[in-house]
Amino acid sequence: MKKNEPMTICPCAITIAMLSSKWKILIIRELLKGTCRYRDLREQVFGVSQKMLTQSLKELEADGLVARRVYPEVPPRVEYSLTDDGNSLRPVIQVLDAWGAHYVVEKEPDYVATRLTSTRQKIVG
Amino acid sequence: MKKNEPMTICPCAITIAMLSSKWKILIIRELLKGTCRYRDLREQVFGVSQKMLTQSLKELEADGLVARRVYPEVPPRVEYSLTDDGNSLRPVIQVLDAWGAHYVVEKEPDYVATRLTSTRQKIVG
DNA sequence: CCGTATTAATTACTTTTAGTAAGAGACCAC
DNA sequence: GTGGTCTCTTACTAAAAGTAATTAATACGG
């Protein structure tokens, strides 16, 4: 926790910073399937609140991973899609997915479910 | 946000649940290099507090990713290492690492540093 | 002896982040 | 006008993370 030290940036940490918060990864995972409206994401990304969805999308846009397109209609229509940088996360998401699937098989779904619903977040969908 | 719905577990979400919190990933990244004492981790995982390190290690142990071995000495010696399941995360960490490195090259280090030190966490090391 | 150093935690407290729920604006169909 | 749709905001609460001080046990220097 020392300050004013020479630091080198750890690439792994960058990825974590960009994706931090479970929601971002799940949002990108959904967007990998194709362009989505805000409403679709809210339905598909199980458990995300409107606030966190908006906030996550804003940050992802700022990081250049997600593109936002507003259609001047009423009711409003906003479409989200992945940029090239966003799409470059496909193999990352795939590996996360594969490891999770492997872990379930190893440990039995019930065991994993216990862990998911313990002190920590209940991520499902 | 509906309740009492039939749910299927998303493998990607499982991975996120197991690794959630930047510290766990950075801790595992360090342990991939070999067995470590608590003290080593505190030095190598830049910025982690004793509390978060202890807490993260406890959860990782509970999830079967990390093994903890205590030597009855004074001052105490506790060694941490990865289990087989923990080691199976190597490709995951590698992909995170690779993507982060690619992102830096794409965006220029200064730009990335800005993002890392904005509203969100300052992960370096 | 007595104070100091060491290691792996823990505890109390503060700050930050996430979650919940309600509302706002803009227009159209009825 | 009343209700409905859609994308956000805002105000508030709960949970998680960060900070800093403290502990237990003992060896070691002087």
Provide structural commentary.
The structure is a homodimer of 125-residue chains. The first copy, chain A, has a three-stranded antiparallel beta sheet with strand order 1-3-2. By secondary structure, chain A is mainly alpha-helical. Chain A has a single domain (13-116), classed as Winged helix-like DNA-binding domain superfamily/Winged helix DNA-binding domain (Arc Repressor Mutant, subunit A, Orthogonal Bundle). In chain A, helix 6 (90-107) crosses helix 7. In chain A, strand 2 (66-71) and strand 3 form a beta hairpin. Chain A has seven helices and three strands, in the order ααβααββααα. At the A-B interface, helix 1, helix 2, helix 6 and helix 7 of A face helix 1, helix 2, helix 6 and helix 7 of B. The structure holds a DNA duplex (30 and 30 nucleotides).
List the helices and strands and how they pair.
Two copies of one chain form a homodimer.
Chain A: H1 11-19, H2 22-31, E1 36-37, H3 38-44, H4 50-62, E2 66-71, E3 77-82, H5 84-87, H6 90-107, H7 109-116
Helix pairs in contact in A: 6-7
Chain B binds a DNA duplex (30 and 30 nucleotides) through residues 1, 21, 23, 37-39, 42, 49-55, 70, 73-78, 121.
Largest interface: A-B, 53 and 53 residues
What are the segments of chain A in which pLDDT stays under 50 over at least 5 consecutive residues? Answer: 1-7, 117-125
> How much strand content do the residues of chain A show?
5-15%
Tell me the structural class of chain A. Answer: mainly alpha
The major beta sheet of chain A can be summarized as: 3 strands, antiparallel
Q: How many beta-strand elements of chain A?
A: 3
Structural shape of chain A: globular
Annotation field: number of helices of chain A: 7
